[in-house]
Structures are given as structure tokens and as C-alpha cells.
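If your schedule permits, I should be very grateful for your opinion on a structural question. I have a record of one protein: its chain in single-letter code and its fold written as C-alpha cells. Would you kindly read the sequence against the C-alpha cells and tell me how you understand this chain to fold? Thank you for your consideration; the sequence and its C-alpha cells are set out here.


***
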Amino acid sequence: MPRTKRSFTPEDRLSLLQEAEREGYMQTCRKYNLSPALLAKWKQRYLNKGSEGLKPAYKRVDPALRALEEENERLKRIIAKQALELEVKTEMLKKTPIQPKRK
């Protein structure tokens, strides 16, 4: 049976914590198929930061923005490579004197 990733809103998390306080942690964990460690982590965050601690800690990055950032990095690498090639070519031209053709 494949496990599906569930997401809980901060309001859901708070209601689950309140239910766990009323009915018991293990019963709530069994009822909603949650890990006791997850419920304990939510409780700790709630006690430390209040309802702000129940919000997701990660920021979701827009896939279009991520694609633009990757393209920007790729273009920066291309420009850096071209600048390095130009610098090497100019240094080589400075070092090699142009000699006239001998007849």
C-alpha cells in the first residue's frame, strides 16, 4: 500500500493538538494515522512560537522562477568562459611578436 504525502494546514495542526490534549496523544495518533514524534514536534513548535510555529518551515519555490534562475546561472557560466577565453587570447597576442615574412 503506497503512502501518500499529506499536508496539514496550521489550523488542522492546532485542532489535532487540541484533540490530543482532550482525548490522549496515542488515540489521536491512531485515529489520524500520525507518528507520535510528529505530534510531539508540532506541540514543541506551538509551545515555542505559538500559532506561527505551526506554519510550514519551508518556502515553496515557483518552478518557473527556479527555471529562470537555472538559465541565469547557465548564461553566467557561458559569459565567464568567453571572458576567460578572450583574456587568454589577448595575453597570447601580447607575448608572441609578429615577425615579418622572410623571402
